[in-house]
Amino acid sequence: MIQNILEEKLKPKAYSSDIPSRWCPGCGDFGVTNALARAFSTNQLDQERTVIVSGIGCSSRLPLWMGPYGFHTLHGRALPVAAGMKIAHPELDILVTMGDGDCFSIGGNHYPPVMRRNMDLTAIVMDNHTYGLTKNQCSPTSQVGYPGTLSPVGNVDEPMNVLGLAVANGATFVAQSFSGKPKHVMQMIEAGMKHRGFSFINVLSPCVTFNKLETFEYWKGRMEEVPEDHDTSDKIAAWKLSEQGMQGDALPMGILYQATRPTYEDQVAMVKEKMGSVPADQVDMEAIFDSIKPGAK
Ligand SMILES: Cc1ncc(C[n+]2csc(CCOP(=O)(O)OP(=O)(O)O)c2C)c(N)n1
Ligand code: SF4
Q1: The CATH number of the domain where 46 resides is what?
Q2: What is the pTM of this model?
């Protein structure tokens, strides 16, 4: 009996697709893909009820290599597509995989509202501090002086504090990891998926082809586990940790912040309940417009 149960358990490989990967050998994003497959296997995730949504970029190809359903959307539009999907189908487990350009640059106007609404999504950014797919332009997380192809004298813009931004804008789970430590990435993904609400996991993931400065070795030497006595419910402490990394100190690795508050899906259900279940084609729009006219009671 026990033997049968063990045999039926889906191994990480069962969560991968048979499409051959087209990433450069050694790309950090392989570590994230492996960690995802292992996290899915540990939780024996139901592939029929799981969707991985991505934008455009090297990292955004990730859903192609995975077994569950995938939606390769437009550059910067992974989060709004995932948000719509979650509102229509709250029963689905939805993960969003993006690059730093995809999420913070062209997608930068979608990232705060989804966090603020605390939608129950798990967002994973493969942050390589450059645009890999389009051959090395600076991204919002590139360091000052970074030699992007459109920045011949080096990047002049300050990098964004993306962890601090998540803490400040209402994400209820904020963590950072490093693709050179796939076990740690897996633990963060598992914890993020277990969390009800918006989980943001930033994974520093080297682009071995273009970013010759922030290599596996470089990041390995800069990462430090979040201190054991760090209080993850303390927003200010989480902000301080995120900012210390920006000031050149160790980059925090682990859960910086976690909080509990109603998800957007809970709020939608509550609004529906309060309004009564009137079928959409029977809503009296005239009465609604009359009720909001100036002077209406
Ligand atoms: C609307 C639009 N603008 C620009 C592009 C070109 N483009 C494709 S991917 C990309 C950036 C990719 O960088 P990132 O999201 O960090 O992912 P990476 O390739 O580094 O994993 C850009 C600018 C596009 N496809 N669509
Ligand atoms: S260009 Fe960089 S990010 Fe893209 S697959 Fe190659 S190593 Fe990975």
Answers
A1: 3.40.50.970
A2: 0.92
